[in-house]
Amino acid sequence: MQPVIEVKGVTKTYASGHQALKSVDLDIRKGEIFALLGPNGAGKTTLINIVCGIVTPSSGTVRADGFDIQRDYRETRSRIGLVPQELTTDAFEAVIDTVTFSRGLFGKSRNPAYIEKILKDLSLWDKRKAKIKELSGGMKRRVMIAKALSHEPDILFLDEPTAGVDVELRRDMWKLVRQLRENGVTIILTTHYIEEAEEMADRVGVINQGELILVEEKSALMRKLGKKELTVYLADPMERVPSELSDWNLTLKADGNELEYIFDAHEERTGIPSLLRAMSDLGIAFKDLNTRQSSLEDIFVSLVHERNGQ
């Protein structure tokens, strides 16, 4: 199946000389939720703006639904919805008017029932006659999402959509994203809330310093790079890890009250039984044990630090 988004060799160097993107290749599958992760300034927004036709690449090509984003701008833009980071709306327009107007910009015929559904899905229906300037920041964010959905796009970009908004909006937002995906809409999101990507995404891409350093199925990424962490809560604090336990590469934490052991859960022998026996032989008592699977955030931080030589 042909990817719905094809990015080939895309670079972007600004007039200042800053290279925001370094030869990015990326295919997005139709109907998937793809999470693009990266630290501030990594190039996430630049890449999204290029695909959406807002920023011109220095080199490379981008196709959306088979159409070239530069040569077939009108075709590609009609297929894409974008929720940008910035809240840019006409402060003096009513909510329902600005969303209806956005639909008209794409040449779509009036559909009051569809606009009503969007506003209700985003808990905006009761505010439909309110002017934008009267709304809270969270409500303005909802309006931006409604505007992006107004022309029924096949591809939806969400650039930090829940940054600085309330828990209720976040819940409504992800409920709506799931509904859209069920209807065949492709979702590409950037987020600082890595737990959201971990919960929602089918695949994850990590971008750092303008370079796409990894694209992987989320579940495969978790299996491949996810480690488990054993915390041993000691009965009595210790000043240092005994040399007899050096084979396990333990870390002493919490003022000497905890021992941390990182292991690969997929290995046949994790080393835990032998560690506990060795501790018993040394007379080291413990009160409790706890194991924790590495999160997507742990993996992301590890990848970025590794690339940056930290």
CATH topology of the largest domain: Rossmann fold
Query: How large a portion of the residues is in β-strands, by DSSP E?
Result: 25-35%
Largest sheet: 6 strands, mixed
Order of helices and strands: EEEHEEHEHHHEHEHEEHEEEHEH
- Determine Rg (CA atoms, Å): 24 Å
**Total separate domains:** 2
CATH superfamily descriptor of the largest domain: P-loop containing nucleotide triphosphate hydrolases
The level of helicity is: 25-40%
Mean of residue pLDDT values: 86
- State the CATH architecture of the largest domain: 3-Layer(aba) Sandwich
Total number of beta strands:
14
Q: Based on helices, strands and strand pairing, what is the structural class?
A: alpha/beta
The global form is: elongated
Number of helical regions: 10
CATH class of the largest domain: Alpha Beta
Query: Low-confidence runs (pLDDT<50, min 5 residues)?
Result: none
Textual characterization of the structure:
With 310 residues, the protein is α/β, with parallel strands linked by helices. The protein folds into 2 domains: 5-219, P-loop containing nucleotide triphosphate hydrolases (Rossmann fold); 227-293, Alpha-L RNA-binding motif (Alpha-Beta Plaits), CATH 3.30.70. The protein is 33% helix and 27% strand. Helix 3 packs parallel to helix 5.
